[in-house]
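REQUEST ID: PR-0412
SUBMITTED BY: lab tech R.K.
PRIORITY: routine
TASK: structure prediction, single protein chain
INPUT:
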Amino acid sequence: MKHKHMKGLAIVVTMSVLLFAAVGIVLAVDYVQVIDFSTYASNTNAEAINEPGVTFDVVEGAARTVGSYLRINPDTNFDPSTVVMHLDQPAKMISFDYKTYGNCGYPVNTIQLYDNGALVDNTTVNSCDNGTYSRSMAFDEVRITAGRVTNLEVADVGTITLTYTLTKEDCKDGGWEALGYRNQGQCVSDTNH
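STATUS: complete
OUTPUT:
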């Protein structure tokens, strides 16, 4: 009788360990970051946009805030203008609304996602189009270009939503601060939900 009891206890302990291991694997949540350009003064250069874990860079031309948008090629005299968003950690989803202006019907605007330097998405957008760009894939860099047919091509990008997988490891070594949390405990707490 004792042997059967011990065998049953071993099964319960094994199941508990497996359940704990499964919960340990699941202790990751989605962290959503919203970049709202309306919070910046109008005419803020893209390089001056300060968001946790995201660095903006303009590799050619110009980009700056106008109202509630990030306007790429605001001076309409560059050929072309490209803004790059470098992410401190890979994201798994992006979404934003866009509106383009210029010589209608020409596919001169691009939205590109890169993962470790490799191009993983290349979307071409006509001038005079508007819509929503949304992708679910791993990436750590976003490039948005307003091309040029004439000197009128402009692209407006609305609020950008980025989604990351957040784990306890991401909260360590100052990661909580880069993610915009008040302290490491708050960050870790979010991974437990």
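NOTES: The two ends are 42 Å apart (CA to CA).
REVIEWED BY: pending
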